[in-house]
Amino acid sequence: MATTVDENSINELKDGEPIIRFEHVQQSFNDNVVIPDLNLTINAGELFVLVGTSGSGKTTTLKMVNQLQPQSGGKIFIKDENITDIGLQELRWNIGYVLQQIALFPTMTVAQNIAVIPEMKGVKREEIDATIDRLLNQVGLDPEKYRNRMPSELSGGEQQRIGICRAIASEPPVVLMDEPFSALDPISRTQLQDLVLNLHAKRHDTIIFVTHDMDEALKLGDRIAVMSEGKILQVDTPTNIAQHPANQFVEAFFSQSVAHNVYDVYVGKMVMMGFSESVLPERHTAPIDISSDKTLGEAFDDLTNCEYLRVMDGDRQLGFIDAQNIVNYLSQRKRDEDENN
Fold it and tell me: Known SUPFAM superfamilies for this protein (predicted)?
């Protein structure tokens, strides 16, 4: 007999406590082993990124969580409940899902798309309407202008914002995101990455995010799992992966992610690799703040007005950089490129 998801029990988990566990999970398609033996724990409240090349098993891993692709063997738990013991509808009602293809219902308005799961769960109409307006405001879309629009009237970035609203409308404790921004233009992609970080900081939900882009993983992830051929090669914080890659594959994958134009490299990436100061040296003028997602080109521009920049990730201070830190980083990058050629 299928059990139900205890939402209150899951929501009462403290950040950092295990919420999803894979125990010796296998996945095969037509006798082709895709995931040989996956063991992984994802903690409540973290933005966990699965990153890897095409065919690495990252999307398959994601889809096993909501059973779009049931595993061939092993067990997956949400908190302490085996997901195969949970009714499929109940499971999916409590897991938000954002796809690359967006997949809004084309004959339904924006408001109707967002309301799908709350209506299925029997939420009161006035609560649903309030949720729709609140979420639209949170993703930067005026409810008066967008509530009654059709998906065909929206840009790709706007459609994906509605997709995010739909995924979180019923306040699910877990949200899955499968390369949601890979088809968008660079500006929309950056805006939506920032939006996800902002919503996550407010909601403290657990997000599992799939991407093939290490730069995106480094920007978003509290922890990152690097996958290849159905195996996890390293699970760690962005900083530790940048500074201490587990093997040559992880190191190469990280190196290849760097922008072709060195001036397009994120400042935060340079700081993660150790090219910064933890404290501001004495007898220096007050630094200018710069966001970790700004580029080295923008940092050079700012350094014409001051000696040091304070690198910030939201309200969190990451470190201080000056022109010499950037030169040292670029020199190391050149040495690495020479060694690989």
Answer: P-loop containing nucleoside triphosphate hydrolases
Tell me if residue 267 falls in helix, strand or coil: helix
CATH topology of domain 1-94+173-182+203-257: Rossmann fold (3.40.50)
Confidence of residue 102 (pLDDT cuts 50, 70, 90): confident
Q: What is the pLDDT of residues 202-253, one digit of tens each?
A: 899 999 999 998 888 888 999 999 999 999 999 998 878 877 889 999 988 8
Answering whether pTM is above 0.90, one says: no
The contacts found for 135-142 with CB under 8 angstroms, 24 or more apart, are 135/165, 135/168, 135/169, 136/110, 136/165, 138/165, 138/199, 138/202, 139/164, 139/165, 139/195, 139/199, 140/195
Q: What CATH number does the domain located at 263-340 have?
A: 3.90.1280.20
For 36-66, the DSSP string reads EEEEEEEETT-EEEEEESTTSSHHHHHHHHT
